[in-house]
Amino acid sequence: MRKFLTAKWHDLIMANYEIDPSLLTDSVPKGTELDFHESRCFVSLVGFMFLDTRVLGLPVPFHINFEEVNLRFYVKRETESEIRRGVVFVKEIVPRFAIAAVARVFFDEPYEAWKMSHTKTENELSYSWRQGESNNTLSVRIGKRLGVPDADSHGEFIIEHYWGYTKHGCDRTDEYKVEHPKWELFAAEKPFINVDFDKTYSREFGFLTDAEPHSVLLAKGSEITVYKGERIS
Question: What is the pTM of this model?
């Protein structure tokens, strides 16, 4: 596999919502199936920092460090040698048009450019994004270090996915690999989620605006490598 992108993903806030899997049926890429943890189906709202970003080994001026917020769900694909656990993105939001354009061209991922900002202090982490009348915030207080989550735990299920899948119509699916070491978690205290899911994503997810998340996780992150995608169906 050819390396396409390297970066650091740091300071990941993950708000995880249990949903009816029927809401995702039409979005599951061919060749994959929904992945569940303890019979529960999740979508995750994830805010994080993209740092030291390089495409094909080269930094792109003014596009090295930036925020991203995405909504994703979880799938798996069984091969002859392994079960590949991965994610599918509903939408990925970044602050610069060029970033979104490159992601759409090379990966056909659902990227959009919005106005974004973040703040981080010793005790607090926050992401904000807005477009038109839609103003959104995701924040937590940074609690104690929890370490790497236990095997088969909810925390491991949410953060340890190493494949991405992109649906192209009814018959084509692209698969790409993401490499990173296991991530440490910190306690995500006093989470604040003010997100208009209807305007930001779609009417299907509008009910999440007033829903309580099943969990909110805070991951330290690490260096990552994304490999060029390949068609699997």
Answer: 0.92
